[in-house]
């Protein structure tokens, strides 16, 4: 898409009326023509555009197009005044039903009809000072009625800069009136040119039109509803027209219920083709239908959806991947509804109170929080229902009560958030308003758009300049009307005065039906001459370049949820914030059966001309996915709804509904409520009420259940995470486990010990055996107000959340003494519960004041906010995680194998059997393993004992048994019944060196004496215990000293040091 310099065409369109109809006769204008000047050819062209306009005005309608060659043309010049009159108020008065096209080569060129608006520049120019909105206040926008062209003298004066950062000048036309003035610039001819395409589409009013490529053949088809002049059911029409190319649209006889009402396309079942929601007034009454597309055949699903004067909008409000359906009803007392897509063609009313007597509605991520909000225009009030994890709150917009209305989301200012266009009858006044989204506040802009009711409006970038334009039809104060408003990129929408048929009781829709990269327009309704349907083909000069493809996709899995993120893309015309993104997710490569992208899987061609399903975000979350492997890809969508190619796919695995799930047990008015909390955005889903209040929460991976202590009674209860049902936890003897504590402020499970730890109301750490039920008081933590516990199941570290007055800290707690040690301050404030997440290696807690969920680094205590939780107190958190240990039969992270024990293919330590790994695996044929792979050392390279050797231990130590030195080879000696290679010949500074200083001294003797008395001031127990009381031969094979510790400190150790001090070594024979 190409965009003009913002100086071009700021507001000068007020004087022009561009149109486009089929050509009957053409006039030519060329400033360099030298012929007859009658406009019949390029070399006989009019020299002045004003002469050609006059000729067309007097032609009686036979002139339908004026072509203008390159050059500059002024409105004060014609044949009578070839040098100009100097009239600064002169303007070109263009004509309805006469197309004006510039950018031709013209007379004297090799191809006079060559058309290139950049190469053969055609400009209109006048000589006048512009009028600004408020120059005194620095508002240099052109005001209504201002000349938009000023030739000036081009003298640069640093007063202000203009919109493209060039210097403005003073008194450009030399009339001695000093005004802040634009530099000389010209309006480049780039008028909207729409040609009515001949079709056989029926003429209807009370119309509804929607483009969608239902047959996946790469061009847009059309659904059309309305009331025609005649036909069955009092002229009601409900049809799908297949686009067969060359303006041919064929009724496929879809056998839809004949109504006048509305439709909406979406792939609700994820099978790769578009289905259709339909509803409205039939002869049999009001009906709502959902039709499933089965290879081009539309099958009534008989879904339970009501429709009483309804409008439809598809959108995945619960982020589960499939699209849900919302509708409004303006007849009777039928409420507006949201129907959740349950799969298998089932839609269930979620019961959300959304009011009634409403007209238009639309899904859109208004607050940029990566879920869809719902705007509804109605008799009571226009509201935005803000979505927070599937729960809605109503935003009071202050917008008028509005009926006979239409609304649409669109980021018209390309600032990265959705704005809202609204039209209809506001308390008796026809309006068309645009509300700018200012950080979640809708601010009405001053646009002066023509008000309408019984209307339709749509955003779309018809001129491919990267900004959304707006088209509106409806009943205005002057009758049926259709207005196209050009977005100048500066915050204004300007009526460009096209000759679209004016209609009311109408519908219109943008769509590139002929695939030329320009948005075309279809319009139906009641005109001054009767019911009509017109298709306008866009033949403008703007060229649309598709956006780039998103890159560097990443995923973050949270139990059954996944956040998919990517780097923002770009577009040659649309600013980056103006782009949207479209996500597809499937269970096989290239598929989108989980989240449908509704775009061609190869080319990226959008099958519905609308914003992408991931809205304006560069990250989107899907929730509640089933176990399995998934494939995801993303494309970029520009303001003309052109899609990029799809990104390279990324895969991710969902390991189970429990893996990594974060649970919370509520307190206070929500006591007993069990919630599942997203670690991605902190949204909380109520699972159910346990029926009793609890004081804490933990997860036991061995039994795959949540544990909690019942308030006041101290009973340990198990909670089913699927439905919040509770059962009593029994010990091995079948007895209930009861913790005799009035209050438990924390609970956490150490799975390797099959025990739970808690902190009672006296701040005492207690241990509860989940096998025997024994409850043991370990010791005081040493800190008051410990409000939660978490245990790292890998290393057993116990963490606590300590909240003294005026601060908050993360602490670790010693499992043997109960003593706490501060890790550091978290900076949170008032923490509520704590849990350790072994799948992420972090902790989670909630701040009572802000309701924010925080994730804490256990090493530094630094905390980062995840997002806001609902406003309820929390007694405890717990993260479900799979039990992981060697021997559980599952190959887990860091395990090479796991056969639930030693096997021929797996060692007992869950490594692959390998001779030389130091682990003897008899089932794999190993008899020894000395950690080496060489022969000749007693244990062969096949891990068998070599002849003449004996091996003991694991890993193995091998030796040659003997009686005499002659039994040994070479110079080896027989020492302690084993052939030794001078291992113990003389090591005076090893054996007996109790304190390890390299010398045998009296200090070593005193060390042993102290140890004999039970004191260890200088040496440890292990250092003092150097010798057994019996024959050292019990230590065969003898090794380098120390030789034979026996677990007690005795006189034998004392004598051994004395022997060593005397130069003797009992390990070498005494």
Name of the level-1 CATH class of the domain at 661-880: Mainly Beta
Instruction: State the total count of DSSP E strands.
Output: 68
Kindly state the percentage of residues in helix.
under 10%
- Ranges with pLDDT <50 over ≥5 residues? 1-23, 141-191, 982-989, 1029-1042
Structural class: mainly beta
- Global geometry: elongated
Strand sequence of the main sheet, in spatial order? 11-38-37-36
- The appropriate CATH architecture of the domain at 661-880 is 6 Propeller
What's the Cα radius of gyration?
42 Å
Treating each run of at least 4 consecutive H or I residues as one helix, how many helices?
5
CATH superfamily of the domain at 661-880: TolB, C-terminal domain
Q: How large is the share of residues in beta strands?
A: 35-45%
Mean pLDDT: 83
The CATH topology label of the domain at 661-880 is Neuraminidase
* Main β-sheet description: 4 strands, antiparallel
End-to-end distance, in Å? 97 Å
Structure description:
There is one protein chain. It contains five helices and 68 strands. A four-stranded antiparallel β-sheet has the order 11-38-37-36, with no helix packed on it. A four-stranded antiparallel β-sheet has the order 12-13-14-15. The radius of gyration is 42 Å and the shape is elongated. Helices cover 4% and strands 36% of the residues. Helix 3 packs antiparallel against helix 5. With 1070 residues, the protein is mainly beta. Among the domains are: 551-654, Immunoglobulins (Immunoglobulin-like, Sandwich), CATH 2.60.40; 661-880, Neuraminidase (6 Propeller); 914-961, no CATH class.
């Amino acid at each position: 898409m190409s965009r003009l310099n913002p100086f071009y065409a700021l507001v000068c369109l007020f004087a022009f009326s561009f149109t486009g109809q089929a050509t009957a006769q053409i006039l030519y204008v060329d400033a360099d023509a030298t012929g007859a000047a009658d406009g019949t050819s390029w070399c006989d062209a009019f020299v002045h555009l004003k002469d050609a306009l006059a000729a067309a005005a007097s032609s009686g309608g036979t002139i339908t197009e004026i072509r203008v060659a390159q050059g500059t043309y002024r409105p004060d010049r014609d044949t009578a005044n070839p040098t100009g009159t100097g009239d600064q108020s002169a303007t070109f008065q263009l004509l309805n039903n006469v197309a004006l096209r510039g950018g031709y080569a013209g007379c004297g060129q090799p191809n006079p009809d060559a058309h290139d608006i950049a190469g053969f520049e055609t400009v209109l120019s006048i000589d006048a000072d512009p009028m600004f909105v408020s120059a005194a206040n620095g508002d240099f926008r052109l005001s209504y009625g201002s000349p938009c062209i000023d030739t000036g003298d081009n003298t640069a004066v640093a007063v202000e800069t203009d919109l493209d950062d060039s210097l403005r000048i003073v008194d450009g036309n030399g009339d001695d009136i000093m005004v802040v003035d634009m530099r000389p610039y010209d309006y480049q001819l780039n008028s909207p040119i729409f040609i009515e395409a001949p079709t056989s589409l029926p003429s209807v009013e009370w119309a509804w039109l929607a483009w969608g490529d239902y047959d996946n053949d790469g061009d847009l088809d059309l659904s059309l509803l309305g009331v025609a002049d005649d036909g069955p059911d009092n002229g009601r029409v409900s049809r799908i027209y297949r686009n067969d190319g060359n303006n041919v649209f064929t009724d496929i006889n879809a056998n839809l219920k004949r109504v006048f009402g509305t439709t909406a396309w979406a792939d609700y079942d994820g099978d790769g083709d578009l289905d259709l929601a339909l509803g409205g007034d039939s002869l049999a009454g009001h009906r709502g239908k959902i039709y499933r597309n089965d290879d081009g055949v539309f099958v009534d699903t008989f879904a339970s959806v009501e429709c009483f004067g309804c409008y439809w909008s598809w959108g995945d409000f619960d982020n589960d991947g499939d699209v849900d359906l919302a509708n409004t009803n303006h007849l009777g007392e039928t409420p507006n509804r949201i129907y959740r897509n349950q799969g298998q063609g089932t839609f269930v009313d979620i019961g959300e109170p959304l009011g009634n007597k409403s007209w238009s509605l639309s899904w859109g991520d208004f607050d940029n929080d990566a879920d869809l909000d719902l705007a509804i225009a109605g008799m009571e009030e226009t509201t935005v229902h803000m979505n927070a994890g599937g729960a809605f709150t109503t935003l009071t917009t202050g917008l008028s009560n509005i009926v006979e209305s239409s609304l649409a989301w669109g980021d018209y200012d390309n600032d990265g958030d959705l704005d809202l266009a609204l039209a209809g009858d506001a308390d008796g006044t026809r309006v068309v308003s645009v509300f700018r989204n200012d950080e979640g506040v809708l601010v009405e802009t001053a646009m002066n758009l023509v008000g309408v009711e019984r209307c339709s409006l749509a955003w779309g970038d018809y001129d491919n300049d990267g900004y959304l334009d707006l088209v509106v039809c409806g009943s205005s104060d002057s009758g049926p009307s259709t207005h196209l408003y050009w977005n100048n990129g500066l915050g204004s929408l300007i009526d460009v005065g096209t000759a679209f048929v004016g209609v009311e009781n109408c519908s219109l829709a943008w769509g590139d039906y002929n695939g030329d990269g320009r948005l075309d327009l279809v319009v139906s309704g009641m005109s001054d001459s009767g019911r009509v349907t017109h298709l306008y083909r866009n033949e403008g000069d703007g060229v649309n370049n598709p956006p780039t493809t998103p890159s560097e996709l990443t995923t973050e899995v949270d139990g059954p949820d996944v956040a998919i993120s990517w780097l923002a893309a770009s577009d040659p015309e649309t600013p980056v914030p103006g782009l949207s993104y479209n996500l597809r997710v499937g269970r096989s490569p290239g598929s989108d059966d989980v989240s449908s992208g509704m775009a061609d899987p190869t080319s990226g061609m959008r099958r519905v001309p609308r914003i992408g399903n991931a809205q304006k975000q560069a990250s989107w979350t899907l929730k509640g996915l089933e176990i399995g492997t998934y494939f995801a890809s993303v494309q970029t969508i520009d303001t003309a709804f052109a899609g990029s190619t799809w990104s390279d796919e990324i895969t991710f695995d969902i390991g189970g509904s429990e893996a990594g799930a974060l649970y919370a047990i509520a307190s206070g008015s929500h006591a007993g409520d069990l919630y599942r909390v997203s670690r991605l955005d902190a949204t909380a889903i109520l699972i159910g009420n346990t029926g009793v209040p609890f004081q804490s929460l933990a997860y036991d991976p061995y039994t795959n259940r949540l544990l909690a202590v019942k308030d006041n009674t101290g009973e340990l209860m198990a909670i089913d995470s699927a439905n919040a049902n509770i059962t009593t936890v029994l010990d091995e003897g079948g007895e209930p486990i009861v913790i005799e504590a009035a209050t438990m402020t924390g609970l956490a499970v150490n799975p390797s010990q099959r025990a739970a730890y808690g902190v009672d109301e006296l701040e005492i750490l207690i241990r509860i055996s989940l096998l025997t039920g024994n409850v043991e008081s370990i010791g005081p933590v040493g800190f008051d107000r410990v409000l939660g516990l978490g245990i790292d199941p890998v290393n057993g570290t116990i963490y606590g959340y300590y909240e003294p007055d005026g601060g908050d800290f993360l602490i670790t707690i010693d499992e043997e003494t109960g003593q706490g040690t501060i890790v550091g301050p978290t900076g949170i404030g008032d923490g509520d519960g704590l849990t350790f997440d072994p799948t992420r290696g972090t902790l989670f807690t909630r701040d009572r004041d802000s309701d924010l969920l925080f994730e804490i680094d256990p090493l530094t205590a630094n905390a980062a906010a995840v997002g806001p939780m609902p406003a309820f107190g929390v007694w405890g958190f717990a993260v479900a995680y799979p039990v992981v240990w060697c021997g559980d039969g599952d190959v887990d992270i860091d395990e090479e194998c796991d056969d639930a024990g030693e096997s021929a293919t797996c060692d007992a330590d869950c490594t692959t059997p390998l001779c030389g790994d130091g682990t003897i695996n008899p089932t794999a044929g190993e008899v020894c393993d000395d950690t080496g792979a060489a022969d000749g050392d007693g244990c062969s390279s096949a891990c068998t004992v070599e002849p003449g050797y004996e091996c003991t231990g694991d890993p193995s130590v091998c030796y040659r048994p003997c009686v005499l030195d002659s039994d040994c080879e070479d110079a080896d000696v027989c020492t302690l019944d084993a052939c030794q290679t001078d291992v113990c010949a003389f090591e005076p500074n090893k054996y007996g060196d109790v304190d390890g200083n390299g010398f045998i001294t009296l200090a070593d003797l005193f060390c042993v004496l102290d140890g004999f008395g039970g004191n260890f001031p200088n040496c440890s127990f292990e250092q003092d215990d150097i010798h057994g009381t019996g024959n050292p031969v019990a230590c065969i094979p003898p090794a380098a000293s120390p030789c034979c510790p026996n677990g007690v400190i005795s006189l034998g150790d004392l004598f051994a040091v004395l022997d060593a001090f005397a130069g003797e070594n009992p390990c070498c024979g005494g």
